[in-house]
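ok so for the tutorial part 2 we go from a plain amino acid sequence to predicted structure tokens. step 1 is just haveing the sequence, like this:
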Amino acid sequence: MEDTSLALVERIFLTVFPLVAIVSVGFFYGRARKPDMAAANQINMDLFCPALIFSVLSSKSFDLATYQNLAIGAAIVVLGSGLLLWPLCRIIGVKAKTFLPPMMFSNSGNLGLPLIVLAFGEEALPVAVLLFLIENTLHFSVGVYLLDHRTHPASLFKIPMIQASILGLVWSAFDLPLPEAVNTFISMLGQVSIPLMLFALGVRMISVDFSKWRIGILGALLCPISGVIIALCLQPILQLTEIQLGYLILFGALPPAVLNYMVAERYNQEPEQVASIVLLGNMGSLITIPLTLAFVL
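step 2 — the prediction. this is what the tokens look like for a chain of 297 residues:
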């Protein structure tokens, strides 16, 4: 029993430490040099992430039908978190447009991709990408619509990650060949995305606004709790395999996405409060993620 416990602790440490280490490097480098990450983040969103998505989705090993119920569950976790916490906004005196997007749209990129791969192995990368794709698609459609009802659905197809997803799925469905040299080139571009996401998250954390700490701490608690509750409630309906349930629970426990702050800033939707919710939520994940890993592993 003791050996099992030690093995679990070691696995959690080996999963969490690389993530914390890279984020910490970004944080301390950011404090020392104060780099402008806007260009790097834009390149990551426009080039490296699409390359990773295409590389995974276009591979012969990716079978969308295998993850159908998991994909449905992930979408319900995202949308259900908003519905579950919506009545709370009036009670705590915060605007729904400010509070709900960070509760719905989690850090499935910066944190979720490497976390799932480290926790479940390289074979989990297609799942991590699929969950990331679902969260991002909903964020750029439903999430943006919540802030601006004039958003046109067609604008979704202008996003490089969505274009790469469609192209990757078509490539896989028709079993199209990809020259080895081209495949290696795209794969190497994609490998840049995850470390850069983590590093950028660390740099972003130097701007934590502790004046809004109350709403930040509340969000840090409610975001993973609501996601995990919905994931567990879905299991009797979806009947996921044990490992897929683990994926969904870990997805539900992820903290708010950094992208929430960027979107709130663009639409002038109380970005200071959103920044506090996002950054304190990601700091709080140092506690909630190990607890979740202990539950699912």
